[in-house]
Design goal:
The structure is a single chain. The strands form two sheets. Strands 6-5-7-1-8-9-4-10 form an eight-stranded mixed β-sheet, sandwiched between helices. A two-stranded antiparallel sheet has the order 2-3. The chain folds into three domains: 315 residues, 3-Layer(aba) Sandwich (Alkaline Phosphatase, subunit A), CATH 3.40.720; 99 residues; 92 residues. The chain has 21 helices and ten strands. Helix content is 57%, strand content 8%. It is globular. By secondary structure, the protein is of the alpha/beta class. Helix 15 runs antiparallel to helix 19. Bound molecules: zinc ion. Zinc ion binds next to helix 8.
Length: 594
Amino acid sequence: MSIGDGLRADKAFQSFPDPSPSNNGSDALTPRPLAPFLRSKVLHEGTFGVSHTRVPTESRPGHVALIAGLYEDVSAVTTGWKLNPVNFDSVFNRSRHTWSWGSPDILPMFQIGAVAGRVDASTYGAEFEDFTQDATALDTWVFERVKGLFEDAKRNATLNRQLRQDKLVFFLHLLGLDTTGHAYRPYSKEYLHNIKIVDEGVKEITELIDNFYADGKTAYVFTADHGMSDWGSHGDGHPDNTRTPLIAWGSGVAKPIISRSGKAKGHEDGFSHDWGFDQVQRNDVAQADVAALMSYLAGLAYPVNSVGELPLPYLSAPKADQANAMLLNARQILEMYRVKEEQKKATELRYRPFSGMGDSQASEERIASIRRAIAKGNSSYAIAQSNELIQTTLQGIRYLQTYDWLFLRALVTIGYLGFMAFATTTVINLHVLHGSSQERRTTGSTIFFSSILVALYSVLYIQRSSWMYFLYALFPLFFWEEVWARRDALREGKRALFGPKASFEEYSGFFIKVLAFLGVLEALVGCLILTTKASLTTVVGTKLLRARTVYCTVRVGSTVAGILWYGFLEEEQGTCSDMGLLLRPHEHFHILTG
Ligand SMILES: [Zn+2]
């Protein structure tokens, strides 16, 4: 398996003038495909399509989807800034042995979660990823190491024997394109030239392996973890970021389906119109399906938490074998649902089951019916039934994963509203009533708020909820209790602001201060989201994270400075009575929004 990190699908297949620095000839300007080797596999030997990623389009979640078949929970990063918040099963872990080469930011996460000694990871040093040098060196480093391994096997009999076993995986992580994409953008000569380097390298390694084994029993998969936007970035759900190429060829992979008349199937969206593949059927997949495909091709069990669906158009197997593989796929996904449901049932006070699935008896009956269809040779029916079962089960898994969402969203929303009300009462008390209003609590109100908290915490405790849930429950109660205690400020503030004696200046000054408080809140929340997202990324991620931290500091800093400045002005000028000050809050507002 080779992954061209940050290789966007269209760039892999479109034609461009020769981007090679060495070519100064007159033909250099003639557009040509940059990956002729991969192209030949699409046209004559294998199966191709677009692999659609999910967001965030970052290296880590992309690799986890491709190799473990699961879409990693983005919030998992908040459970600790460790390499793997939770270790996971993967295609590598299911292999007899995996050799991997590439970035120190990607390889270790598959090595550490796996059975000890099963995954070899050969990485360059982090300093080698420096942006300033030619990033294609990251790819040639990998190709040289792969060649080195097979070279060593000529002299090392133990290694030679090891390499001739079945169920082996070789993983080439090619980071060059991601680095050139960030530094020069995907239209640049540098990025396009890097595509050539990757294509030539994959060609060399394919020939090397074919010659070494000379038995035609190797399958090859080439894809990318995410794409790259025109601005040289990725992370969001823009199609340039989510569409990556997928090409498979070799043992067990179907030959291309060529249309004799008109366009082949799969090109309906028009995305691939200028790839020169109109006559070749395009078979799109979801990114996690690649894990299922690799498991099948290498003869491995599906990774336990894989939600990948076996992409049948890629298989050259007879229908009966496909039906069996699909049934296994369905049973593996069903097992995941069962385990998750058991866990939920064990902790939930009043569990509401997913209506689409029926009880375990019902799904057993469905499995039995698929088995009968296979036994009778009715493969197409069996495949359709397995497919249906997979879809329902995936919905069920989604149901279980989002079981608490309504509850949590309600808590968080009430908490935010409470914070806004709290900020408003603070501003009114400080700037309208000049601190004259007192907090007022009664025994009744204290008992009321405490009992809600005790009730919520008891439920969370019984359900063995994460400590985060306890925080989510605390904030709304804390803020609303404060608002209640300051209800006098609200009443008096209303009288002062909207009463007959309120001046325009007081009114506008109050309004700007409320905006300032909400601005701080918005900045804090925005930064939290940005840093959470950035923490998922790899090498570029650490740089992005640093950039975002600076950005957030500036943003929060300028907002706070703006508020302080406003407060200072008011101290200086007394009440906002002259025109000059009426302008300044307006200037200040620019700082806030800027
Ligand atoms: Zn990147």
